[in-house]
Amino acid sequence: MPTNRTPDSGHLWSVALPQLTKRVGHATLDSFLRNTIALDFDGHTFRLGVPTQFAKDWLEQRHADDICDCLSEAADVPVALQMEVTSSMATPAAPAPPAPPVSPPPQPAVSVSARSEAATHELFGSTPLNPRYTFGSFVVADCNRFAHAAALQVAKSPGRSYSPLFIHSKVGLGKTHLMQAIGHYVKQDNPSANVVYLSAESFVNQVITAIREGHVEQFRRKHRYGDVWLVDDLQFIASIEGPASEEEFFHTFNFLSETNKQVVLASDAPPRHLKIMNDRLRSRLEMGIVADLRAPDVETRVAILEKKAEAEGLDIPREFLEYVATKIESNIRVLEGALLKICAYYSLYEMPLTLSMVEEIISDYSTAASDKKLTLEDILEHVAVTFQAEPSEITGPKRHKEIVWPRQVAIYLAREMTDHSLSSIGKFFGGRDHSTVLHAYNKVSDLLIEDERVLWSINDLKAALRGE
Ligand code: ADP
Ligand code: MG
Predict the structure, then answer these.
(1) pLDDT band, very low/low/confident/very high, at 454 (cuts 50, 70, 90)
(2) Which residues line ligand 1 (CB under 6 A)?
(3) Surrounding residues of ion ligand 2, Cβ less than 5 A
(4) How far, in Å, is the centroid of ligand 1 from the Cα of 139?
(5) Ligand 2 centroid distance, CA of 332 (Å)
(6) Which tens digits make up the pLDDT trace of 26-81?
């Protein structure tokens, strides 16, 4: 309902920004929106301060409608947008763009009416799906093959295959993408299906509000209406507000399961490591399919970059994409952020790209610290010292526990940190075959998620090998 009071611009921006991030993705948020500032809102036009001309051009060219939509939704009235370069703000990592005019000419305001579907979304407590997160734009590789297959199966026959599907991984590895791909697929197959997508955080907030305002019954009705219920970032269900949200979640979950509706959940940890108090809920979560997503190897990172560049309509030489893929190994979101920045330069300024420009543009993102190529010998030696074993034992035939674990760790690190193929790693580690290498790699990858001590020890080994 429209109100007479004009919301404060800062407040409006803080409400609109999370919704906007859901549409444009975290990469755009990190690269272009984080350093923006709300300057003014007069009830009609919102003035947004952006740090550089480059960010302004990019946001105007690609996201003006999204920004207007989210502001309109937050303000409950149609909002026009005006962007201004505010030079005193944080400077970007990338090379300096052409200097902005001292006092920018007035911009034509872009106006978009509030979303017509807003009411429907509110009805189901759902968040709009990001149109980019489809199965078509998801690169399938060893690190995600199982989760992808399970997601596709669920999308093809929701409620009839397995429920819940539980996807877990570290941040930025594709959980949200896969979940939303299910939502798109179901909607396309059956436009009248009620697909509800929301984060557990939003669920918790809705529970709290419903309890406070005495609307619990209404809240239950709307959530139990979904045919496909996609709940993201489930780790937030363990709310500091007490067990009420967990209970409410459990009831909704049970209701939907019993009525053969499809539930898909994503979280940063597998069910047994979720900090929830309700053991019945935990065991129900474990009864479905639990699929993890692991960090992609370098070839997959290149393939993802190629797909993203193609989606942006850009023909970036493979050599540059390979460079980015070897430099950035942390997560796909960061990888995408770097590519976005390169794309922006490429398309806005039409500069011929050189490798040194690419290097400079992504210098802030680089996580692979040194250019020195890590060898299999380096890894073997370091692992041997760490585990107080002889290198010859690690590559040797013995199969007792004390030596198998360091061997598996060394193989894991070799696969993660070098470009050697499975068979050449196997050959180096005592003439082992390709499937033994894969088994060792998978073993460590699984434990990384299950056991925090393993995570830390691998983390330390990697840092030491990178010379950090
Ligand atoms: P998470 O939810 O696990 O934190 P996201 O689903 O938000 O991760 O993924 C982060 C970014 O990486 C998104 O932009 C997503 O499109 C991209 N991404 C992740 N996995 C893939 C993949 N296999 N193919 C293409 N893009 C991917
Ligand atoms: Mg996510």
Answers:
(1) confident
(2) 25, 27, 133, 137-139, 144, 169, 171-177, 304, 307, 332-333, 336
(3) 175-176
(4) 9
(5) 11
(6) 777 777 787 788 888 888 899 998 877 777 877 887 888 899 998 999 888 889 99
Task: Give the DSSP letter string of 435-447.
Answer: HHHHHHHHHHHHH
* Residue 169: band (very low, low, confident or very high) from pLDDT cuts 50, 70, 90: very high
The conformational region for residue 242 under phi > 0 = left, psi -120 to 50 = alpha, else beta, is: left
Calculate how far, in angstroms, residue 26's C-alpha sits from the geometric centre of ligand 1: 10
Using the mean position of ligand 1's atoms as its centre, give its distance from the Cα of residue 466 in Å. 25
Task: Tell me the CA distances in angstroms from 168 to 218, 225, 264, one per residue in order.
Answer: 31, 25, 11
Residue 393 tokens, joined? 């034992």
Kindly tell me if the per-residue pLDDT of 334 is higher than 90: no
Strand positions, DSSP E, 351-429: none
The string of pLDDT tens digits covering residues 246-291 is 888 898 899 998 888 999 999 998 888 887 778 888 888 888 889 9
The residue whose CA is least distant from atom 18 of ligand 1 is 174
166 or 106, greater pLDDT: 166
User: Can you tell me the distance from the alpha carbon of 255 to that of 339, in angstroms, rounded to the nearest whole number?
Assistant: 43
Give the fold, CATH level 3, of 376-465.
Answer: Chromosomal Replication Initiator Protein Dnaa; Chain: A; (1.10.1750)
Residue with CA at minimum distance from ligand 1 atom 13: 333
> CATH 3.30.300.180 in the chain, residues?
9-91
pLDDT (0 to 100) of residue 139:
97
The CATH architecture that domain 145-292 belongs to is: 3-Layer(aba) Sandwich (3.40)
If you measure from the C-alpha of residue 171 to the centroid of ligand 2, how many angstroms do you get, rounded to a whole number?
A: 7
> Which ligand sits closest to the CA of 177?
1
Residues of the chain with CATH 1.10.8.60: 298-361
* pLDDT given at position 372: 56
Q: What is the mean pLDDT of residues 220-242?
A: 81
CATH of 298-361, one of 1.10.8.60, 3.10.450.710, 1.20.200.10, 2.60.40.740: 1.10.8.60
Place of tokens 């370098």: 298
Q: How far is CA 304 from CA 147, 321, 378, in A?
A: 17, 10, 29
pTM to 2 decimal places: 0.61
CATH fold for the domain made of 9-91 = GMP Synthetase; Chain A, domain 3 (3.30.300)
Domain(s) labelled CATH 3.40.50.300 in the chain stretch across: 145-292
β-bridge partners, 82: 47
**Nearest-5° Cα angle at 306, 302 to 310:** 170
* Residue 89, pLDDT above cutoff 50: no
